[in-house]
Amino acid sequence: TFLRGDFQNASAHALSAALSIVENEDGNGAREISSFSHFLWGTLEENFKQQNKSCFILGASGETGKVLLQELLERNVFSKITLIGRRQLTFEGKAYENLVQEVVDFEKLDDHAVAFQGHDVGYCCLGTTRAKAGVEGFIRVDHDYVLKSAELAKAGGCTQFHLESSRGADKNSNFLYLKVKGQVEADIEALGFDRYAIYRPGVLLVDRQESRPGEWLARKFFGAFSAVYSTSMAIPIQAVAKAMVSNTLLQPEQKMEILENKDITSLGKRTGK
Length: 273
Description:
Layout: H1 4-23, H2 30-49, E1 54-58, H3 63-75, E2 80-85, E3 100-103, E4 121-124, H4 130-155, E5 160-164, H5 176-189, E6 195-200, E7 203-205, H6 213-228, E8 234-236, H7 237-249, E9 256-260, H8 261-269
Parallel strand pairs: 1-2, 1-4, 2-3, 4-5, 5-6, 6-9, 7-8
């Protein structure tokens, strides 16, 4: 029997394929192609929305997490959005009225397994820095907390997991930051999600509220540079959020994919919005 869910999945595959063909076309008719691309994205969003799916965000208080939440609310493709974090966040405006917030102790995540149950899609933007948390603290947050959360989400029925990682992530790297990022990527892949997407952005172009001098200078440099040239080193944080949401709507044939900075940049521009 060909059920409604099968039809929706088949439609998503077909639309994804059509979108790929349309957006790779060059030459004349650019305006018509752009219009049709916009139509396809709208159809994908409506198709996904009708499936009545729910999602959770880890790290919604961070820079990427905040922008990702805004993007999800604006595009309204999920019937329920849950924020999982160590503290309750305060929001103003009707757009946030239906948000669900689960406060957890990341040192005792097994005690909060229920917070990870019943979600279809998970987004992880959780992370800290060695300078802020020390070596052990950095590993605990960026590896242990992230992996345990993914394990609980998988056990709770989550089928699709989207991880914000970093350009250059490699479990065999001699650099601690890149090594930890690469290791958690691999460990989550081993969990066997039906769909697993890794995003490896470069320097995030955002005016961080508590920016360190080195970060601020890097953002200013890459921001000015990327305004003139396409760069694999930097990306606007809004593009990362748009890419994560847009990629959720697509139906790639592979279960696991890695999106490097240039891939994220391209997908972040393809929403037609």
